[in-house]
Amino acid sequence: MENNQTPEGTSELALGPLPARRTATRPPLSTSRAALLQTLQGQPEPTTLVALIAATGLHANTLREHLDALVKHGLVRRHHAEPSGRGRPAWLYEATPVGEESGLSEYAGLAAALASTIHRTSNSPRADAIVAGTEWGHELARAADAPATATAGETAARRQVVALLDEIGFAPEPDYPGSVVRLTRCPLLEAAHKYPDVVCGVHLGIVRGAVEEYGADPSGTELFPFSEPGACRLDLTVRAAGSR
């Protein structure tokens, strides 16, 4: 499968989504900590506390508290600068690269290994992946913050599924009141490029399972991987349960 990458800053996008944002897996952050993390992400090299005080305007003690919390959550890492003269070397802070926080890289590697196994051993990789994803979708919907509503109706079920997709990292862009949803991020993009039948099948199953859990019929739902510039297209056509 070709992936026609274009230089950063151009108006053209490659077909398919981008990797999931780090915000999809990180814990909720206060406005101040989110702003501090964004500041660190914009730095070309590790930054000292003194430089961060100047950049943010925060008091040193407040800044240390925020940095400690970000380090604890795996969003920022710190190390000592090279010794220079007398005194203890200063701490340097930098944002954790995407894929290293919260075990995300290990999760992605495991998912790729499982996708490879299913792709190699199954007689119907996509069908088996959809079945597995459907079960997962039911579980995700039950565990979501918004409770499933058996009588939610088509519109409510669609909105609940979009909210769930946003929570797990797909950055969906729905065309309400229509049924098309652009999935602009992918939590398992590398594995999806290697094994689209399995990974994208699981993602379709997740949607269908969630639709069922939210009390609607997902039989009209279909996923078209890497079909648009900057996104995969999801046709989230749902019907009230029992209707034809």
Integer-rounded radius of gyration? 21 Å
**Helix tally?**
8
What's the SSE pattern? EHEHHEEHHHEEEHHEEEE
Average predicted local confidence, pLDDT: 82
**Straight-line distance between termini:** 36 Å
CATH class of the largest domain: Alpha Beta
Might you state the CATH topology name of the largest domain?
Answer: Muramoyl-pentapeptide Carboxypeptidase, domain 2
Strand content: 15-25%
Structure classification = alpha+beta
CATH H level, superfamily name of the largest domain: Trafficking protein particle complex subunit 3
Shape: elongated
What does this structure look like?
With 244 residues, this protein is an alpha+beta fold. It has 2 domains: 22-98, Winged helix-like DNA-binding domain superfamily/Winged helix DNA-binding domain (Arc Repressor Mutant, subunit A), CATH 1.10.10.10; 102-240, Trafficking protein particle complex subunit 3 (Muramoyl-pentapeptide Carboxypeptidase, domain 2, 2-Layer Sandwich). The chain is 44% helix and 16% strand. The longest helix is centred in the middle third of the chain and has 19 residues, at 125-143. Mean pLDDT is 82; it is low at 1-11 and 99-104. A hairpin with a 5-residue loop joins β5 and β6. A 4-stranded antiparallel sheet has the order 5-6-10-9, with helices on one face.
